Amino acid sequence: MLKNILHKVGNTPMVSVEIDTKENLKIFAKLEYYNPTGSIKDRAASYILNHLLQKKIISHSTTIVESSSGNFGVALSAYAKLYGLKFICIIDKTTLPINEELMKLYGTEVICIDKPDPYGGYLLNRIAKVKEIVENTEDVYWVNQYGNKLNALAYFNTIGEEICSEVPDKKVDYLFVGVSSGGTITGISNKVKQRNPDAQVIAVDVEGSIIFDGKPRKRFIPGIGSSMKPSILSYAKIDDVVTVDEEETISACKDLFQKHNLLVGGSSGSVIAGIDKYFDKYPVKEEVNIVCVFADTGSKYLSTLFNNEWCMMVREKTKKRELLSTLK
Ligand SMILES: Cc1ncc(COP(=O)(O)O)c(C=O)c1O
């Protein structure tokens, strides 16, 4: 019996997924939307706040502050409420209304940034606002998912362990993880390499993200990619990077729903599209175990990823941009 549903973090289901056109790929996905607030971020939010309180790095009078446009903000809101902590979340204009409403429902103070940064995104201005709050607030703690080792440690100790013990024959040949703040891949890659030194870790990024030196441009799929290089990634063990675009992500999300009854968010579609693309380039002759992470549910994206008009809009804008760049 649980005292509180928020204690039920982790031990999410692992399911097998097939790509019709590929032989020898045994793909296993961790369904992270089975966490209490619906995403992988429950793991980091609960782990970090719990650790900080236990080690007396913060107290119940500390104000927690973080920049997040989505899942992490929702998860931190829930666990801040659970632990009786004040939380200020800096979001931006692109934050899904459902995420903003959820944060407020949990009692979080939400500050929305509407001025884009030089990359056309909002991240840099969100971080600037966090720094301003930190300078002007007494007894404040900035979670800083892009640089806080606790973020990676949360995944190292939880989902990293689960993956290594649940995968058939306890053998991980490949690990594919979508990257944004970098915490997930940093934590899991270290655990997987500790147990399977020969495993190949492949980071999945999206067109328009600059994490792995891509060219910056407007991105439409939330939860993956970034307009800044996360410092936490210097601890990650990454062997290769595969970059996918919006079309590939959208079509993978639709396939996962139609063929596997998995209603997942964009970063999960990107990961499957990334696996498909990677093994087009490097086909394998023998069966390999591939583990990947489906970070959140598609139910939040019914009016975007799963909406034909939205997908058409993305296609049109992408075509127009490609045309303009060929004319330059
Ligand atoms: C849906 C989703 N997928 C993947 C990620 C990437 O995880 P990380 O930030 O740990 O790199 C995030 C991060 O916000 C996310 O919200």
Describe this structure in words.
- There is one protein chain.
- With 328 residues, this protein is of the alpha/beta class.
- It has helices at residues 41-54, 71-82, 97-105, 123-136, 149-157, 159-166, 183-195, 246-260, 266-281, 308-327; strands at 14-17, 25-31, 63-67, 86-92, 109-113, 140-142, 174-178, 200-206, 240-244, 288-294.
- It folds into two domains: 5-34 and 155-315, 3-Layer(aba) Sandwich (Rossmann fold); 41-142, Rossmann fold, CATH 3.40.50.
- The protein contains ten helices and ten strands.
- Helix 1 (41-54) crosses helix 5 and helix 6 (159-166) packs across helix 7.
- It is globular.
- The termini are far apart.
- The mean pLDDT is 95.
- Pyridoxal-5'-phosphate is lined by residues 39, 70-72, 178-184, 223-224, 265, 267, 295-296.
Layout of secondary structure:
Layout (H helix, E strand, L loop, with lengths): L13 E4 L7 E7 L9 H14 L8 E5 L3 H12 L3 E7 L4 H9 L3 E5 L9 H14 L3 E3 L6 H9 L1 H8 L7 E5 L4 H13 L4 E7 L33 E5 L1 H15 L5 H16 L6 E7 L13 H20 L1
Parallel strand pairs: 2-10, 3-4, 3-6, 4-5, 7-8, 7-10, 8-9
Antiparallel strand pairs: 1-2
Helix pairs in contact: 1-2, 1-5, 2-3, 5-7, 6-7, 8-9
